[in-house]
Amino acid sequence: PIGLDLEWINPKAKKLQSKFLNKEEQELLDTTNETLMTRSWSAKESLYKLAQMKGAIFKENLIIRSHSAGSDDYFDCQIRKNKVKYSVHLTSRRLNNLIITINSRNLQAF
Fold first, then answer.
1. Cβ proximity of 5 and 93 under 8 Å
2. DSSP bridge partners of 90
3. Residue 105 pLDDT greater than 80, yes or no
4. What are the helix (H) ranges across 1-110?
5. Element (H, E) at 64
6. What is the average pLDDT score of the chain?
7. Calpha distance 64→47 (Å, rounded)
8. Is the Cβ–Cβ distance between 44 and 59 less than 8 Å?
9. Residue 55 to residues 50, 58, 60, 61, 93: CA-CA distances in angstroms?
10. Chain Cα centroid distance, residue 61
């Protein structure tokens, strides 16, 4: 499966970050950075599409475990679905004011 999301950079993601990021994710990420919060929202949306799990709770089932910044941003993530944990690697690219996020490998259960 593919988890792909497109988002315009938007200050709303920074304002709403507490709705989709859990406490550990808020400590990991710079929640004052509008672009990073848009990337984080896009990562969560990509995970949601990849998980194909209606009713997923973004703060509990779709987890950002680490983030690295560069020309592209990378997120190490986890999907928690039916008591199984899946490792997911996402790539997030900025194109002008658009964020494009996609999984770079298939899901791996562990």
1. no
2. 75, 103
3. no
4. 11-15, 17-20, 23-28, 34-51, 58-61
5. strand 62-68
6. 94
7. 9
8. no
9. 13, 9, 11, 10, 27
10. 11
Neighbours of 30 (CB within 10 A): 14
**From CA 45, how far away is CA 90, in angstroms rounded?**
11
The CA-atom distances, in angstroms, between 38 and each of 80, 81, 87 are 22, 24, 21
Q: φ, ψ for residue 57 (rounded to 5)?
A: -100, 115
Question: What is the Cα–Cα distance from 61 to 10, expressed in whole angstroms?
Answer: 24
Task: Give the Cα separation of 50 and 36 in Å (integer).
Answer: 21
DSSP 29: S
Q: What is the pLDDT of residues 33-83, one digit of tens each?
A: 999 999 999 999 999 999 999 999 999 999 999 999 988 899 999 999 989
Copy the structure tokens of residue 103. Answer: 């999984």
